Amino acid sequence: MNLRIPVPEATEPLPSIRTTNGFLQWISSVDHKQIGIMYLWSGLMFLVVGIIEALLMRIQLGTPQNTFLSPEAYNQIFTMHGTTMIFLVLTPVLVGFSTYFLPLMIGANDMAYPRLNAFSFWMFLFGGLLLYFSFFAGGAPNVGWFSYAPLSEKVYSFSPGINYWALSILLMGIGTIGAALNFIVTTLSLRAPGLSLTKLPLFVWMVFVNAFLILAAFPVLNAGVVMLLADRLLQANFFTTSTGGSAVMWQHLFWTFGHPEVYILILPAFGVISEVIPVYSRKPIFGYEFVAASSVAITLLSFGVWAHHMFAVGLGTTFNSFFAATSMLIAIPTGIKVFNWLATMWGGSIRLTTSMLFAIAFLIDFTIGGLSGVGFAIVPVDWRLTDSYFVVAHIHYVFIGGSLTALMAGVYYWFPKITGRKLSEKIGKLHFWLFFIGFNCTFFVFHFLGLLGMPRRVFTYPDLPYWGSLNLFSTISAFVFAFSFLVLIYNIVYSLRKEKSAGDNPWDGWTLEWLTTSPPQLQNFQTVPFVRSRRPVWDLNHPENPDWKREEED
Amino acid sequence: MDKMKKNKTFMYLFIASEAFFFLGLIISYVYYSHPGGKLSSSAQYLDVLKTSIFTVLLLSSSVTIAFAGSQLKHGNKKAMRWWLFATLLLGAIFLIGQGTEYARLMSVDLTISKNVFGSAFFTLTGFHGLHVIMGLITISIITGLLFSEKFQSVDRVMLESVSIYWHFVDAVWIVVFSVVYLGAIL
Q1: Do residues A399 and A263 lie in contact, with contact meaning Cβ atoms separated by under 8 Å?
Q2: Backbone angles phi, psi at A388, to 5 degrees
Q3: Rounded-to-5 percentages of helix, strand, coil across chain B
Q4: Contact A110, A185 (CB under 8 A)
């Protein structure tokens, strides 16, 4: 049987607002590829805003007793920075990649519910715009990205900023739940013939498992947020301690969502890494089953670790010990994956493309973030370091060193599929080194500042030994780090104008998205082959040595 | 996977996520209705008897929508229409019952801002009421489609998916009723 499918040439030009119906076609689109691209552009737009906010904070903190920002402005900016980066950058970019590639990787022509897909995107975008509208409506939220009660209550925060925060979180939560429902049903119902769940590409597997995590975590946040809104708008008493409410209840509700949320932001990133490393190491992933099963373990365990954010609340030794144990436990399945990736690279013929460099940087930086995370599981260590810059270092190592670095690997890996052009490797390498050095220099010193006792969320600090110099070093590095994103944007614009087409499968990838044209047509696939192994495109390209034959022999 | 199975899967997943939303509210209610470990004295104002009657009515609407489904199987559209009307009516009566309960509680000065019990009670039952309203809207859309020329065939997939949601709304009420009302007298 000839499994080779003729691939048609791309007839449509690059997706752009200049094409046929332009802007209208984009805002009315239900095509998963266009929606995915809109997610990615919106994520990039909010990323630029979030970086500007970060730089404003770094300027303020560059020297002791600085007066560049007022305390009130500083509070608003760090709240907006955290909320933006988590809900308006990492979430939509991960969801955007999933929306674009999940159908392609399982050989489907669209999501199971295209209109729900569009709905999810617009809920997210307008939720984000609503959050930023607060600047014009009497002040942005100013109580941090987790809005601890009772500070977030009306008595202490009279400006409407927190109402906007709560409403936009609610909208984005609904959008994300819609996307998660779509991912699960799409994976269950639209797979190519022969593509059983055990043969799914690991990226799809991670997104699939992650969707269950979203379905369980976001509704709990929504419940907390509607209670906060009831407090602020209807004078309810949930979290107002003066009238019998409980501020600790907010912490429980928030972190019941909040800790699964960090896994929600890292599991798809694990998926990206699990695609990138094998392709550039020219070896199938080592221990597919372990990578897949450990993410299920992470999903289940992530619901039993939330109170490690609350060791300082004083909930009692039994309580703290339980959550310390579960928090250490969850490091095991994560560690398993790191060894899987290392073993995949071991003995492979590694191609050090920009994408692979980011994947390797991910292994290093995410491990640093993971290790400081295990440290926090030890209750006395947490007591010493909680709410210090050590926590700030940890969160940035897992979110930037983990999620964002993996996303960069994904950007360089999949850009040719989305646009038909490769990103320039030369500019890409420059981007990578500025990113890697800038990031580590900015945030590694935070560990020391935390150990020296610098508290987080302070707009300035006294001139204590080393505080000024470490902060200044971090501020200068932050500008290098921010510059790396300008290089990325330049690379995107520069590479989009390139005449030379990348071809349909520039990296010699193995999953189904590389079978179709770059960029794919409105209908992704005319025909899909019968999938017999985890590397269907390898099987097609190597009819003399397909995976499924070897598997049968084993 | 056929359309029926696909949409049913979607609906089950959707109500699973809804269940987590209610779980958050129910746990909060249990906590807030027992300030200091004892049931709040405000719980005595709840009308358990009247609410049990409305509860029976809401639960019977689960039966009527199931009858509508079996009539659709037999191709009996007229009977199906009547069963859907009955469902709408029972749901609406339940909402009226909830409205009168709210009005009475407010007349004895038990409001959402009165104390933590009031906050938790009105938020939990209020969000359940909103879900009943959403169900009534979707069921009326189906009923409306039955009258339209274009949609003479309301398909089973549509009705089945809405039924799953409607049963869920009833099931949540069983839990809410047990926790809130039976919890107040036990």
Answers
A1: no
A2: -110, 180
A3: 85, 0, 15
A4: no
Closest Cα in chain A, distance from residue B154 (Å): 19
Residue B106 sits in which domain range?
3-185
pLDDT confidence band for A21 (50 / 70 / 90):
low
Backbone torsion region of residue B154, taken as left when φ is above 0, otherwise alpha when ψ lies between -120 and 50, otherwise beta:
beta
Judge whether residue A241 has pLDDT over 50.
yes
Q: Give the Cα separation of A529 and A540 in Å (integer).
A: 9
Helix (H, G, I), strand (E, B) or coil at B152: coil
A227: nearest CB among B5, B18, B28: B28
Show pLDDT as tens, one digit a residue, over chain B (186 residues).
788 899 999 999 999 999 999 999 999 999 999 988 899 999 999 999 999 999 999 999 999 999 998 988 887 888 888 999 999 999 999 999 999 999 999 999 999 999 999 999 999 999 999 999 999 999 999 888 887 766 656 678 889 999 999 999 999 999 999 999 999 988
Confidence category of residue A139, pLDDT binned at 50, 70, 90: confident
ipTM summary value:
0.94
Average pLDDT of the segment spanning A14-20: 57
Q: With CB atoms and an 8 Å threshold, state whether A181 touches B14.
A: yes
User: How many CB contacts within 8 angstroms connect chain A with chain B?
Assistant: 97
Q: Are B145 and B72 in contact (CB under 8 A)?
A: no
If contacts are CB pairs under 8 Å, which of residues 156-185 in chain A contact chain B?
Answer: 177, 180-181, 184-185
The confidence score (pLDDT) of residue A17 equals 56
Domains of chain A: 30-553 (1.20.210.10)
Name the amino acid, one letter, at A499: E
CA distances in angstroms from A149 to A296, A421, B175, listed in the order given: 33, 49, 29
pLDDT tens for each residue of A514-528: 999 988 988 899 889
Q: How far is B68 from chain A (nearest CA, A)?
A: 26
pLDDT of residue B151: 61
Instruction: Examine the pLDDT at A11 and tell me if it is beyond 60.
Output: no
- Within an 8 Å CB–CB cutoff, is residue A189 touching chain B? yes
**What pLDDT score does A1 carry?**
37
Please report the DSSP string for B88-118 in residue order: HHHHHHHHHHHHHHHHHHHHTT--TTT-HHH
Express each pLDDT in A326-339 by its tens digit. Answer: 999 999 999 999 99
Cβ within 8 Å of B, A 193-222: 215-220, 222
Question: Which CATH number does the domain housing residue B175 bear?
Answer: 1.20.120.80
Q: Which chain A residues are Cβ-neighbours of B24 within 8 angstroms?
A: 219-220, 222-224, 253, 256
The total domain count for chain B is 1
Write the residue in B18, B24, B123 that is nearest to A236 by C-beta: B123
**Which of chain A's residues have a Cβ under 8 Å away from the Cβ of B5?**
189
Of A527, A529, A526, whose CA–CA distance to A11 is shortest?
Answer: A526
Q: Which residues are within 8 A (CB) of A386 and not within 5 positions of it... i.e. 6 or more apart?
A: A311, A312, A376
Rounded Cα distance, A46 and A270, in Å: 23
Mean pLDDT of the residues in chain A: 92
pLDDT in tens, A400-412: 999 999 999 999 9
Contact B13 A235 (CB under 8 A): no
Evaluate the CA torsion angle B81, B86, B91, B95 in order and state its sign.
positive
CA distance A194 to chain B (A): 13
Q: Tell me the mean pLDDT in the region A370-391.
A: 93
Residue-wise pLDDT for B10-35, tens only, equals 999 999 999 999 999 999 999 999 98
* Subunit contact A238:B21, Cβ cutoff 8 A: no
Say if the Cβ atoms of B113 and A235 lie within 8 Å: yes
Q: A224 and chain B: CB distance < 8 Å anywhere?
A: yes
Chain A CA closest to residue B12: A181
Look up residue A292 and give its amino acid: A
